[in-house]
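Forum: Protein Structure Q&A
Topic: Joint prediction for protein chains with partners

I've read a bunch of threads here and the consensus seems to be that you should model interacting components together rather than docking separate models afterwards. I'd like to see that in practice. Below is the full input, 951 residues plus whatever partners are listed. Could one of the regulars post the assembled result?
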Amino acid sequence: MINHNANRKSEPTMNTAKDWANASLKNISQVILIENPLSGLLILAGIAVSSWELGLIALIAALIATATAQFLKADPELTRHGLLGFNSILTGMAMYLFMTGPNKWWIALVGAFIAVLITAAFMEFFKESTLPVLTMPFILLTWFMLMMAYRFDRFILTNDLVPQFLSHEKLDQIAIPDWPEALINGYGQIFFIEQNLSCILILAAVFVSSWRSGLFVIGANLVALATAYFFGADHVLIGKGLYGYNAILAVLAISVALPSEKRNRPVFSGLIAAILSVLITASISAWMQPYGLPALTLPFVLTTWLMLAAKRVLPEL
Amino acid sequence: MINHNANRKSEPTMNTAKDWANASLKNISQVILIENPLSGLLILAGIAVSSWELGLIALIAALIATATAQFLKADPELTRHGLLGFNSILTGMAMYLFMTGPNKWWIALVGAFIAVLITAAFMEFFKESTLPVLTMPFILLTWFMLMMAYRFDRFILTNDLVPQFLSHEKLDQIAIPDWPEALINGYGQIFFIEQNLSCILILAAVFVSSWRSGLFVIGANLVALATAYFFGADHVLIGKGLYGYNAILAVLAISVALPSEKRNRPVFSGLIAAILSVLITASISAWMQPYGLPALTLPFVLTTWLMLAAKRVLPEL
Amino acid sequence: MINHNANRKSEPTMNTAKDWANASLKNISQVILIENPLSGLLILAGIAVSSWELGLIALIAALIATATAQFLKADPELTRHGLLGFNSILTGMAMYLFMTGPNKWWIALVGAFIAVLITAAFMEFFKESTLPVLTMPFILLTWFMLMMAYRFDRFILTNDLVPQFLSHEKLDQIAIPDWPEALINGYGQIFFIEQNLSCILILAAVFVSSWRSGLFVIGANLVALATAYFFGADHVLIGKGLYGYNAILAVLAISVALPSEKRNRPVFSGLIAAILSVLITASISAWMQPYGLPALTLPFVLTTWLMLAAKRVLPEL
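Posted by a regular:
Agreed with the consensus. Here's the joint model:
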């Protein structure tokens, strides 16, 4: 009498509505490198609080990502962990926010679909590497789609995205930074949001996954604000949280979230990562000025790749 | 009595004039991912029909590529398949067309020589990758050489290549696209040509290699034209075939030409590739505007790399 | 009676002041791909002769690199060979020279520290590649830090770095190039210096390591000057040695310094490398014009990578 199924592990299929809901919520939480449906739900609530249309876009983008991965027969393990979909959330939201006119709805959803293809391609590109793809597919796709507006009549950019010749603009150094705002805006800016309640819900999504992560991101934001202030960054931008969100993501990646054989000095490496992310934020923002494009999460991606790779040669980093 | 030669396969040497002619014509046909001397001859005729000087440049570039590979002792297999020379054809033609003045002849031929070195280097860079080099060496070399005109007195650009600050230009949406022209210009634009007979000869070069490929490229061009029109691309550019040639190349690569262990849905993946190539064409064209550089075949290369890599994670793509 | 130490090789530790001095001087000499403390000392003297502050920056940057590598527990072999520190020398000097105001001192030293992290990261990125990292970390870090000046009040660029829209400037073709200056300035420009005695000391540093290297760099410089003159480069820039220093470095790398299983034609490949480096110098300089950034040693890095990779497919190169 042999039980043929004795050693068979449960198939990681995606059959039930619950599987789909879980995968789609993880698509949302993986934006902040967390795999936790409750975190995803809190983030979704945070987005919807700032704008119900934006929340709807995030939700549909999450579902499109799950459906695309299933339809094109991706490994269900990837889908279940939300690893193919987090770039779709950000791309959909970015298209909706940085474009205007009657077509931005479907452009956002087409963007969410293409993001799955680009995420898949980057996974393949990075297969031999020990580095994670992170949000690079979102960054490149969003920049590419925004640039299409200069060639396609149906794509209309908002007035925020104006190419400007690179020159020494006057940085606001007189107004005192709005510190109370600065202290929470960084969390919201991960999802392009400055609304207070949204920011708090997104911070709560981190704490729900782990208290340790929550404390690390608060530290990361504080270090980033202090660094930006010390170097003389524009005070209005500091208040908007624009120097904080990349530090938050980088420290989540370096000190807590990413698997690492040796994470012997998480506070030290988190401190270096937070400072570097501020420097890189300033630089990327200037590089993209002639194109009128936002830095998005590229400072986070570059900081994280740099720290992960350097640590293999400098083990005490 | 032992025949020492019994198991020796014929050496792939390049001794006869016929070997050189075959290799050089394949250098030309490999531009459209086809290894067929007759296709090469039809393309060469197509180029010469539009301008005999341009045909001569293409022919000499093909011979320079073969000679360089032989002189520097490349594996004769690479030379025989035309794999080291197709970037030389395009680079030579691009230099001749985008430059003016008395030096453009020899600059074109120097470009054809350097293109072999860069193609060899990219083959080495991509050795571990599963992706093909495609026309990336031509694109980078042509852009680099055109930029030299801002620093070298002997390099003079034509008036078509003017750096322009990125802004929302008026796209022509009033004139009806010249559809009859649009239907054939895409084939010629692969070689920078809009002449009708040239376009037909180049399309014939595809059909000569395979009827199936011919039908696929006609479909690719139609999808690209429809996509560009739907997104509201400039109607004049649509008529010139500038939104079609990258789709033609990408679908040739994805659906027909490149070896692929799993090409289970060539029409579906060709459709996605053609649409993506139009999006990427618009974007690359805008990115290069501050440098006054043309998109060349970069949209084809990016689309093909993206599709090939994504398919390994999304098998039904 | 067994001598336990009989087969034990000396531990590559960094315990003595002599170890530190050696490693730090090699950090300096490795900028020109030479591992020789005496060469390092001659270069340091050459730098100090042009400006004692600059010499001090170079010395402190060398020590910071050694200290950072030790503190973060890098493999002492890397530190002893000066492989983790040469980017720190160049970054520190570039920050000091391209920035102004009261903060340039500490910005230079922070740059020297970060350069170690980026060098380590690039070593990891290139681990699987057969290509060396060269000065790529210095180039990217310097460009990134200079761009921060557009966002940080404490970073102030000198007036030499002005972004300019790309257009056909008037190249100086009337003045006869200052050939005597041109013949030696290339050596100094590796370290941003035009002072005669400095240039001679740096050339001496090459000869000290090997007569053969010295003759090769003199040839490289001559070929580069002739190439730049033939293509019609700006005569003032030729006189300043700005078309020579990348050729010097590239020929050092290709013909002499880098380990190579097959260096069968060092003069031929050095000649090609010197010519290519001039072409790439012109191009990179134009590409960076909208950002107001100098080409630094990127032409050297690209030329060297191109030649090393191409040689594997074209063995007689």
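The mean pLDDT of chain C is 92.
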